[in-house]
Amino acid sequence: MTETASNPTAAGAATGKGLKIDRVFSTEGVHPYDEITWERRDVVQTNWKTGETVFEQLGVEFPDFWSLNASTIVTTKYFRGAVGTPERERGLKQLVDRVVSTYVKAGKEHGYFASAADAEVFEHELTWLLVHQYFSFNSPVWFNVGTTAPQQVSACFILSVDDSMDSILNWYKEEGFIFKGGSGAGLNLSRIRSSKELLSSGGTASGPVSFMRGADASAGTIKSGGATRRAAKMVVLDVDHPDIEEFVETKWREEDKIRALRDAGYDMDLGGKDITSVQYQNANNSVRVNDEFMRAVEAGTEFGLRARMTGEVIETVDARSLFRKISEAAWACADPGLQYDDTINAWHTNPETGRITASNPCSEYMSLDNSSCNLASLNLLKFLREDDTFDAPLFAKAVELIITAMDISICFADFPTEPIGETTRDYRQLGIGYANLGALLMAMGLGYDSEGGRAMAATVTSLMTGTSYRRSAELAAIVGPYAGYARNAEAHQRVMRKHQAANDDVRTLHIADAEVHKLATEEWAKVVELGKTNGFRNAQASVLAPTGTIGFMMDCDTTGIEPDFSLVKFKKLVGGGSLQIVNQTIPRALKKLGYDAEKIEAIVAYIGEHGHVVDAPGLKPEHYEIFDTAMGERSLKPMGHVLMMAACQPFLSGAISKTVNLPESASVEDIEQIYLESWKLGLKATAIYRDNCKVGQPLADGGGKAKKDAADAADAAAEGKVVEKVVEKIVYAPTRKRLPKSRQARTTSFTVAGAEGYMTSGAHDDNTLGEIFLKLGKQGSTLAGVMDAFSIAVSIGLQYGVPLETYVSKFTNLRFEPAGLTDDPDVRMAQSIMDYVFRRLALDYLSFDERSALGIYSADERQRHLETGSYEPVEETGNASELVETTPVAKAAPVEAEVVEVVDEDPLAGVPEVKVAKTTAELLEQITGHAVDSPLCMTCGTKMRPAGSCYVCEGCGSTSGCS
């Protein structure tokens, strides 16, 4: 695939040209570092499960506006040199200088700059953008550039394998070296003969699924980049391959095996000691479907599976049945995803060189076999003006500078294999993208799943890619087009016109996106005109990557194209400790929507307690959609994710790393609809994840197994099966504990939104609740009868041992009219009469610890928290000098008070363990009472959160895939 490469140094020198770099961000005569206040911090990282200190570096230097989380992750992940030695990097300045100086030096050597002064401005501008968190290169740049290690700058690789044993074994070797270097790879196995075809020797071929087993075992033994996470990889098979059904079933069958082994007592959690016996778990699987197959699915016709060597149809299948099987497998275990082959190749700038057959592990980079892509992402929220409009001209200036730096990196980069190096140098694929889209839209008062939100996202994406290709055409005039451009010039220009036409089709809805769209339109006009004259320096320009670790480096609230994960977040404090805060984008959004300071304070306080905006005091229901999130009470509908991807896809060279999340109750038909609509809307790839579909997915609260057991039983019952699990031959029967004839009772009168009622509660001698009676409506009315029946049912349940906490957790936050203000100072707002009744019962009969776990406090306790940071009074324990203060994290109000975690040193003291949240995912679980279906980090033990089609750890920055 090697082309006749242009000589960039000679090109720049021959033309006497070079880039004139405008000073936009930095200040002339002042180094970017001198505009910043710097401070020293101690970075100490602990494994939350064991208490062991896994990292410590004292006195590292960072800007004072960087969060502790950002400085911790950068220190632990990106600083080079052994800790405790003089060679160890000690601050952000050293890290940024190491990288930026390498880029500037290469730019000078290869003729990119018109003068030494322009090179200096480039250096200052790049430095300013990095230290102010406006953008970040992908992780390999920070790992390798400017060190003695190979200068690998790419995170994404696509390999190639042919139908020969030499090629298959070489695939194993190449993957191993890429995994060892900390990156991921993908490939298409469709050239390998199926198990239904003969070998030249007369025997039967093994088929690609058989060879997948060997590659999977290899990947499972290699620690990626020397870290604790395993390799990230993608395996693709074409839908017309004769072994396609076996491929679809691989992980599905293994999931059944995991379930069976788990029920037999084996440790099948992710990272468990027995999970290694399960196969095919180290790769994401995708089926590459074409338009012919999808049309056959729509029509309900037959589809032919073709021999690999001759191309002849050797078997026909019912297209709908195969599509159904793909969807059933995805429902059961989230694999396989779909990649839409004809759509991908319709936007391919280099079809004369070869087709695009595969992607990287996260599915955002799609290009030629044996190629790589280096990524960089911008922090969109940094470009929001004070008046909450997007600064399109400033964004464009940042993009042209960053894309220049990314292209320079290919001049000095090293690659894991020579074929990858040749293809990358010849085609110079880049992957500029962004993060914090969800936060940007919220701050602008736009719903993620709204026409306004999608229009804004589309115009920003269009401007980013248009500016990138415009700069690419300008670079081609200075240092030459990419070596493979000449043979692909017509196709490349055709794709540019397709992007331009898609931009013309965008319909803006407000002044903010109209300004961005106008500039994007100008950029695409320049792209088409300059491209005709100069050609292009880069075959590809943009993708939307997960931005996991680098998202933390930029202090982003949201990753990649994702919506906000939750409205509350977990924040570490400089000097130790942590706290729960409401995302700072929310007050900005409320102000944009016209709410006054008093209402904003009340709404933010409500969100801090409940984790969502439903029934927040004073918040208009029509504004709820602006605060919809990936998880929680108002989580986005699956098609909301699909529509956002569809809005942005026409303006990307590559694709989008994103998973469409579905609730556990989603059906196979729901998945079929998402896959079909994604194809119709022009997406290049779609991956889905149904909550709790993975058996081997450890949940921090241990609730996953119980939920799956219940689901398994329900599935079996639905199929008419008998489910039996005998532990011992003992029959357990509930025993009713009746109240004494004479018992303690209290009567409470209440008013909810003007509706009056009375509640009488009776207790046992130990003051545990045993019965309730509710009086609502006139005697003989339907409402009174229903309340009598409800009271009897609850009372009998209490007497048979149903804990009051269970009733409280089920009936609080139940919403129906009448709802609103009450006359009870301890429960000022009620979402329904049932919500009020069980909050009142919790306050009357549950202990403080039991109520804290449910987030229910009295008026005095809430006031005490505002004054002292603790709901509970400080109590003496043992002697006057020993004080223990507990602060429940699960329902902490958004007051920036440090959370103190107390651990009793005596393991036999009998004090119940209070689980303290250590990440936003765990915090969301505690607030909502619902598990976040994410794995635990293998480095620090905390719950990760979704980032694109991967997971990322807030505690240490580790990711489950490429970053």
TrEMBL record:
Keyword list, A-Z: Cobalamin, Cobalt, Disulfide bond, DNA synthesis, Nucleotide-binding, Oxidoreductase
GO molecular-function term, one example from the UniProt record: ribonucleoside-diphosphate reductase activity, thioredoxin disulfide as acceptor
Designated name of the protein: Vitamin B12-dependent ribonucleotide reductase
Family: Belongs to the ribonucleoside diphosphate reductase class-2 family.
PANTHER family recorded: RIBONUCLEOSIDE-DIPHOSPHATE REDUCTASE, VITAMIN B12-DEPENDENT RIBONUCLEOTIDE REDUCTASE
Gene source species: Nocardioides simplex (Arthrobacter simplex)
Function: Catalyzes the reduction of ribonucleotides to deoxyribonucleotides. May function to provide a pool of deoxyribonucleotide precursors for DNA repair during oxygen limitation and/or for immediate growth after restoration of oxygen.
Residue ranges annotated for the TSCPD domain, each copy included: 740-844
